[in-house]
Amino acid sequence: MHGGYRTAHPLTGSLVRYSRHALVALGVLAVLAGCGTRGSRAPVTDMSSAGEQQAPATGTYTVRAGDTLYKIAQAHGTDVSTLVRLNKISDPTQLRIGQVLRLDGDTPMPAQPPVTATTPAPAPAATPVTPPPAATAARANDANLVSWGWPASGKIIQGFNNNTKGIDIEGKPGDPVVAAADGTVMYAGNGVRGLGNLVLLGHSDGFITAYAHNQQLLVKTGDSVKKGARIALLGQTDTTSPRLHFEIRRRGTPVNPLSYLPQR
Predict the structure, then answer these.
(1) CATH number of 12-51+136-259, picked from 2.60.40.1180, 3.90.1150.10, 3.40.50.300, 2.70.70.10
(2) What is the value of pTM for the model shown?
(3) 3-state helix, strand, coil in the chain (%, to 5)
(4) pLDDT at 118 over 50
């Protein structure tokens, strides 16, 4: 894999020749990588708060409302595949409130609370359907500073919020992932826990884009790419289903990609 992030700040030498946004990209990557090592335990989706580290996960965790394996893995400095293996989980998308998960191999398999049998309530006349994430958002005032394009063609399965920092786009393994705008490859590797094979592109006017969970990377650090050029193949690294996690950051601050990407 190109550009694996193995030691503290391996990009320093290659970034200094780029413009100011290269330094911002280095700071983003340092946060992504938990200050520079594969063994760090920094939260992997919070790319905006540098310097936080976590001790290795130990003991157990009881599932609460709203939890997902990905969220639990983030909070305890581990990854989804480890939780699945330790707890013999057959379907990573299904968790029960009250279910007890072990977080490390030294903790014995916990006893699970019994499932209480209940009489099913009558089905409602019409079951409300949860709408998919919105495909549009209010246009940002600075959206026209860069000529943007969609990085993948699938539907949006996860919208932007303060936790996700970006959007998730569904796809099939091997689907093309393309540059959302002209730019320079600031990082291409798999050294960031929880984001799999990752590409960071630096663009003009302080913009940076991130492309995570790829099956294969097609670029290396330092490459110049044009909008629409293939930079990776969509994959499932460090996530539960094939998808592209895509972020846009303006001077280090995450912004809603749907406020910048063209309508489709």
Answers:
(1) 2.70.70.10
(2) 0.58
(3) 15, 20, 65
(4) no
